[in-house]
Records
---
Amino acid sequence: MSHIDMRQFMCLDDNYGVLLHDSVTGATASIDAPDAEAVEAQLRKYGRQLTHIFTTHHHADHVQGNLRLKELFGCKIIGPKAEADKIPGIDIQVSGGDKFIWSHREVFVYDCPGHTAGHISFSMPSEFSLFAGDTIFAVGCGRVLEGTFEQMYQSVNQFKTLSPSTYIYCGHEYTEANIRFALTIEPGNKALSDRAHIVAKQRANGEMTCPTTLADELKTNPYLRCNSPEIRNILGMETASDAEVFAEIRTRKNNFK
Ligand code: ZN
Ligand code: FE
């Protein structure tokens, strides 16, 4: 099978753009459309025609480039059925459990309510890739704005069933701040302190810290580690459910400076 070229780039303040390109079929997809100009510049640079946008959720920093890119390239927009009325230019509505074919590859859709009510993520197992939008970040997860903590717990933790070698592409570069917070609730986690050094170096060099991998997240992301004895001890929640621990971690993060 042909190879998919993945190109990730920064845009707006801290958003990630990602372009997928199959040189055999010419199919080219943008994960979300944070900034039409930035996406267009990447496409022009490599001489590509945008054929699809995969939309994860309705926030402006993920959809505001939709209509302009559609006008420029006539691309098809695939996005969440549950909030389709808020996705400009949406052509194809999908929801959790759906599977579609993009450039001869299977793409699986996951419902991820919590950050927004209709948020979805896309996985492409042939490329060991998950496009998670604002559900999971490196060492973090999205703010719970339209759903419950319980929903967000499920949305984030469902990815544990994917292959650990899965690359996770997320919506924002928040890794440094996420690590600073994570260290307050799991200071004895050696993998986390090791990662803090690596990430500090990457950021000092102006490098992106994503994509991350599920294997790295399992070792360092507190929202996937609600059963960690150290975290439970620090929170004083030894007997609570994982979802309750999740809610406490996410609440503390909201108040963390
Ligand atoms: Zn968002
Ligand atoms: Fe966002």
Note: The mean pLDDT is 98.
---
Amino acid sequence: MIGSRILGTGSYTPSNIVYNKDIENIVDTSDSWIRERTGIAERRISTGEDTSELAIKSALKALEDSNVDGKEIDLILVATVSPDSLIPSVACNVQKEIGAVNAMAFDINAACSGFIFALDIAKGYIETGRATKALIIGAEVLSKIVNWEDRNTCVLFGDGAGAVVIGKDSEEYISYINCKSVGSKGESLTCDILPMENICTKEVINNNKIQMNGKDIYKFAVKVMEEEFNRIIEKSNIKKDDIDFILPHQANIRMIESVSKKIDIPLSRFIINLDKKGNTSSASIPIALDEANKNGQIKQGSNIVIIGFGGGLTYGSALLKWNK
Ligand code: ACO
């Protein structure tokens, strides 16, 4: 039987820290509002590095952590909603810089669920023998597509990239994945691209930024996170007490607290970094995973549930057993 396993992780976030106090100078908000309503205290905002640059830096760290050479990679997937350009893809830019001459490389867009969707594709390629080593990256420079005049959204997001290398194994260490989309709810979170007529009115420019119905997303997220957790317990026959960590998409601490109560698992078993990094969309789960790997929070044999949700709308979950 062919299974798959995470061989190593890496992440990179820009050095520029933007505190809530700094955002008080941009829109009508306050440090206390942002902390109380979201749990976010600071986020990293790029000062010139574009998405590919962040992706490449996280990829190089993941290759080093897994002791894998770029030439061994035969699949590169980058999950992003904020690529540098429509063509070439961020994945092709990464391929060029890491010397992954043997790889197929492409981007996917499932918004904040993108990393789990990419993991699902890579698992499928590896377990059917179509790839042997895959590099999966979530990378975003959301500050490019945030409306810095909209206090409902600009306080939430940050920039960064996280990467993992996956290889085949005789056992299944990525044992369960579920990914779903709910296109009928797409209006809840939108970001247009330039229209056919290039009319640069203020309205058109703002439509090219993230617009969000925060309450709709909030309700959707709490519901699907609870459902996905319960689905994993049911489908993979793992006992609740055997799950060491839950790593949710890092959007809002209140959502995580609410899920923690609903599934009756203490907050101490959730991996959380949103206070320092904000919501980095498809990069949020791999950045937090890399931090937990490097700081020793997750250990050999840890069972980790990852759960994401985002624009599309989309959602997904996976069960990982740590062995690296
Ligand atoms: N500072 C101060 N006041 C604010 C701010 C702000 N930054 N933003 C909104 N407010 C005001 C509102 O205008 C409103 O004022 P009003 O009562 O006078 O009308 C009041 O605060 C309450 O606003 P709500 O929208 O009800 O606040 P809520 O408690 O719902 O929190 C939030 C808003 C943080 C956006 C929350 O709904 C949320 O986190 N939703 C999910 C968002 C999300 O996760 N999006 C991304 C998911 S997908 C992806 O990651 C790409």
Note: The longest strand covers residues 159-169.
